[in-house]
Every structure is written in C-alpha cells, then in structure tokens.
Amino acid sequence: LFIQGLLDRLKEGGGGVVVAEGYVREFERRGYLSAGVFVPVVVLEHPDMVKRMHEEFVHAGSDVVLAFTYYGHRDKLRHIGREDELEKLNRTALKMAREVADKTGTLMAGLPAVITMTAYIPDVTTDDVPFPEACRKLEEAGAAVVGLNCGRGPATMLPLIKEIRKECKGPVAAVPVPYRCTDESRTFQSLKDPVTGERLYPTNISCFECNRSDIRKFAEEAKNIGVKYIGVCCGNNGGLTREVAQVYGRKPEACKYSPDISLSCVFGESSKEEKYSRSSKIRDFMIKGN
What we know:
290 residues, alpha/beta, five-stranded parallel sheet, 11 helices, 7 strands, 39% helix, globular, transferase, HCY_dom_sf, zinc ion binding
C-alpha cells in the first residue's frame, strides 16, 4: 500500500492536508476528562473511545491521525497524582494512533516539523514578535509547515493568515477553533455571554459555536488564500471535518451520509407528495407559528 507522504501532499497539485484536531474538548464534552487540567486520562481509562475517535475523524475526511498526548506530560499528571503513568499514557496513545493510521492509509503526525502557534488577542507572540515574522523565521529554520492553530475562530484567524501567507514561501497552516469570535472577542477564551456579560470559557461557549456553513466558508476562503494544511481545533467534530474535507476535494466515507434536504417530508420536494399533504401546515407551525 503506497501512502503519499506529507511533503508530497503539500506540493502544488498535491491536494494539501486536512487534519482533525479538537480531541481535548470533545472528550471533555462527552464526560471522559476534566476541564481545567485537561489531562487525557481517557487514553488510560477508555482507550477504545480514543481509537474510535481516531476512526471517526478519518471517516469524516482527516488525512492525519494525531496521537492524543496533548497535556500528557509530567507536570500535568502530577496535578492529578498520576505522574507514574506518564510513559504508559504516551506509549498507549502513540500505539493507537499508529494502528489506525496504518489501517486506514492515513498519516500519523510526526516529523517533518509542522509548527503552528496560537494567536491570542494581539497579532504578536508573547515574545512580542509579529506572527508573520515569527512564521517566516520558523520556516527559514527548517519547518515544513508554519501557521496558526487554536485560540481564534475562523473570522479572526483568517486576516492574520493572509499576512502570514504574504510573508512565507512554503506551506501555511490554519486550524482555528469553531467559534464565532469577533473583533471585540478575538479568542474563544474572551467570549462573553450576551445576556449576563460573564465569560464563557471553558465550559459554556457552545452558544457561540460555528455551524457547518461557517466552517465551509472558512475552508473556501482558506483555500483561496493558498492554505495547504487545514483543519479545525477545539470544538471540532466529524461533521465539521467533513465540510473542510469536501472543500479540499476529498470524498470520505462520511460523504455517503451528507444531508439531502430534498428528501425531507417537511422541507424537501417530497413534502409535495400526496401522503405528506399536511406538511405545509406543519412547516408553517414550525416556522411561523400559524
């Protein structure tokens, strides 16, 4: 089985790379790790769930399987009294990712270096270096891909990605969080409840989630900019990854189950059939109330 490598996929005409991230928040949402410390104990306690999520993201169109080792380091494990399980956690995560990548013919994340940074509210790093300049320096130092991930949503990440694209010669990455961030709240950490004014991060930001159309529009804009390495970070799910994959020319197995609203007995063409004669009234009740 020939598996096209990362560098070949990034070349002109190579199709780019679609990557599904966001394991931490999805497992927290499902109740398998704790917000705050965010240690990936699910790798140790429910490894079958992690393997299944790898498979779900590949099914949705991801070209890459990421070993779930995020925050699986000594300091974080010490916080929860499980420092002695450091090696077991990381080896287990790596083994599962390797197995799924080999089984599905996808890439397992590793070398060559893909280096993405998180842009918070300022357009500079915490070392006060403008991100376009920082990415250029990383590229000159040998990184295969440079760009941004996490922190900002599509609307607040893309303008900075455009500037990075101008500064860098090689492949650029864009992996935002799927939240409707604005100029007033550039990061998902800064989002506030429109009613109470309270900050919503990390457990109550679902009211700002991007929909599928938002993510498709992001992927289309990113593709036009020339982004070669693209995905969705914290808050991602298979449905969003499928949108990105389709824009980038993929036809993953999940496309078999893409929405077909024309078949809806209330909103589709089938609603005109005799057996669905009450559909128009039901639709009016749903939308208008009468």
